[in-house]
Amino acid sequence: MRLAFTVAALFIGVVAPRPAAASEPPLPPAPSPPGAVLPEANEAWPRLTISPGFQMWRAVAATEGGDLLNPHLIGIVVKAQMTVSDMVALHIRGAYGLNSTKTPTLEQTAAAWMVGAGLDMYFALGKRVIWYNTMGLGFQQAWLDEDLRDHPKTHNPGAYFVTTLDITMGKGIGMWMDWGCGVVGPAFAKTAGQTSRTWHINPLGAGGFRFSF
Description:
mainly beta; 213 residues; Lipocalin
């Protein structure tokens, strides 16, 4: 009888279901590549971007008599960015603009170009939205073109500070908008053997498309 109980106990131990082994904890997600990571999207900000568009700003230009004017300009702008970390990018930008004025007593064209290079700080606002603050050093040159008058060119070195909102529209393409101050600094021109100078604050607004690579 004792032998029968022993055999029965062994049989029950073999066929009885065993408790399931504890599951192992899931592995952590792989680190994202360099670039500002968008919330709710496992994607990094593109390594290289080219952003053409239109820009409006106010330059400072001198007349041959030494007066300084602030012509309103509209033209084209191109920005190129290279992402170097999850929040930082380097950039260069350039713009060229014109404005034509025609009145019963005046027919005049104002023009300017500006170039700059600097740093961008990224902040992700949503799945497809990036906000970044831009600062850099730049140079601007402006002039007036008028018949029978020889106006000098105005030189304007300084710094610029711009805020950008960028919205991704699809793979490799987005739309952006800039607002801030262009080249802020001294502006000067030589007229009639003398130098006219002022401290210039250059408000600007711009917008266009962004292409990523």
